[in-house]
Amino acid sequence: MMPGNRLRRWLIPGILVLFLTGCNPFSEAEPMMDEYLSRLARVLDTPAAATPSGLPPAATLPRRRDRVLEIPELELGMLDFLSLYGCELQYVVGERNSVMGRVMQPVNQLRYEIRFIQTAERCLQQIDDDELRATLQLAIASKRQTLPLAVWNATWGTEEIEKLFTLSKGYYPVMAEQNPVTDLALDLDQLNEMVKALNDQQLTVSLSDLGQIHQRWQAQFLAGQVINSARLLIATLNSGTDTLKVRLEGRPLCLNGQPNNQSSIVQSFFFKVYIGEVQPYMSGVSRARDSLIGGFARLAEQQQPAMTDKFRSWYSRHLSEDSDDSLWRQLDQAMMRHTRHWQDLLAQCGLRPGE
Question: How far apart are CA 78 and CA 94, in angstroms?
């Protein structure tokens, strides 16, 4: 076989696959929603639904300077005093006072705070000097009190989490072969257990996987994509509900509740497009919301005392399911309204699902 023929044999099927994929409006989120609204108007014989020109508002994470909390340092005199004592604590304090120690990343800062407390408590068992003992007890109490600030910085104050929540990477994928958020959700379960232990002052908890968790955050955009898809679904479903409402308020789809040709077309569209294409995507976004966004919501909720005002406002919109301005509450309401209007329309022909 000639080289050119062999090349064509491999290239043509690949080009056809790309062509067919590009022609399928249900392979990506935004074309799917546009197609759903335009077909919905056609089968209902109503004016074309306006494609949402703007999505419900969302914001990126607050800037790092508005997320990172300042951890009060021990008084310089106390540090100097402790650094002179002959137990392991002098090395811990010395590392902190070094050039590298003064620019610690949040995870290393958390490790330092834990190490300081553990080392100081061991040293306490060796001290006979009353003044030094009292100074060390004050230092331990101070570090335990501010430990939640270091925990916060090592979770919400990191640079890596900004990548995961960026809104610049489009929508949650359609028809994923496997659940894309599984690993991230497992990480969050582990991280939530870490944070709970540290909040309970259980300092023996392992932080060995924390760096890997942050690396996975930096390599993914899924949290922001789920948020974007929630916004897209809210806008699409509300627009589609307006279309259904126009038909419900106009002439009935069926006279005397008897099915007809148009009702058969509408029912076919309902099952093939809405149930067959749109609902699976809605379910995928909902599952990602429950496991991924829900995991981050728990992470924030158990650190509520450390939240800054700007972060609390962001949390209320993007993570919470209970707040008045919750994006997820709006999505639930949009899905329920849209489903109810579909049921009411099909009921005109005795075709309500489940009947």
Answer: 13
Nearest residue to 52 via CA among 284, 193, 243, 191: 243
pLDDT confidence of residue 101: 53
Instruction: Give the pLDDT confidence of 282-296 residue by residue, as tens digits.
Output: 999 999 999 999 999
Domain boundaries, the chain: 29-68+157-355, 69-153
User: Quick one: pLDDT at residue 352?
Assistant: 86
pLDDT at 175: 73
Is pLDDT of 261 > 50? yes
In whole angstroms, what is the distance from residue 59 CA to residue 317 CA? 9
State how far the Cα of 167 lies from the Cα of 352, in Å rounded to an integer: 38
**Residues in Cβ contact with 12 at an 8 Å cutoff, skipping those fewer than 6 apart:** none
Instruction: Looking at 45-127, list the stretches that DSSP marks H as alpha helix, in order from N- to C-terminal side.
Output: 64-67, 76-83, 89-97, 106-124
Contacts of 141 (CB under 8 A, 6+ apart): none
Determine the average pLDDT of the residues in 100-110. Answer: 79
Task: Return the number of other C-beta atoms located less than 10 Å from residue 149's C-beta.
Answer: 21
DSSP tally for the chain: helices H, then strands E: 16, 0
